[in-house]
Hints:
- By secondary structure, this protein is mainly beta.
- It has a single domain, classed as Beta Barrel (Lipocalin).
- It has three helices and 22 strands.
- The longest helix is centred in the N-terminal third of the chain and has 8 residues, at 42-49.
- The two termini are 26 Å apart.
Amino acid sequence: MDSPGNVKTRFLLPLRRPSRPPRSGIPASVLAGLNLALLTGCADKQAEASKVTAGTIPSSSPRDSATAGITAYTYEIVNVWPHDPEAFTQGLVFLNDRLLESTGLNGQSTLRRVDLATGRILQQVKLPSEYFAEGITVLKGKIYQLTWKNQKGFVYNLETFEREREFSYPGEGWGLTTDGRSLILSDGTHQLRFIDPVTFKVTRTVPVLNQGQPVRMLNELEYIKGELFANVWQSQTIVRIDPATGKVVGTIDFFGLLPPEDRHADTDVLNGIAYDATRDRLFVTGKNWPKLFEVRLKPK
């Protein structure tokens, strides 16, 4: 669940998940549909950033029209916040003026509470070294956390971080969010699973399609204003998904978000979406990124 636009190749970075089988990448037809063409240059990006759009997250394409097009977005940076450059971000949630973050890698996986303004870790639990932590979400006073290949998740007390339960699921765990009723899990395929948070049984699955083509490698998830936002692994794109139908209704191109001067040997990929519903703020970051960005979306 890694590099945007082959950033690893560009910066000669090693693959951070040697046990994951090599992937062939996203099919060209899907990439085209996701509007992943790079912007023409930094000057164009700066010019776009000067256009202010009301609201952090503009409405996406109408959902009741079978022929409605997919809206492509770019972004402008509203604020830049510090982020632990050693945090291999797998899951991100904004809650009560703090960030909850799940970090991965065997032997380095954690669940932590982080101060937004300083990036300081306020509270943390470390997972046993056999676990590679993945996505997290919060529902009814509980934190739910996935692991990558162990087919096991954990339930924590929101305040104390005490582990209260474990649950199992087949296949891999990638991203996790909630619509307030169900847990919503991505597993690297184009399928999203809706899971009962008490029994942990799958209540339904939704295939994610872009104009009829499956969108695979869906990674970190966030439920925002009735839509699912999902990082697409190996790209610099976040897709907006109608959870009722699985149709992609918008794409967000985050090319150039982390500037070259902030990239170092350990800098990895775009991954991490959090939303502050109270103040209508959208945050994004990446694995081992030194910064977390508050952004405003703008139609291209």
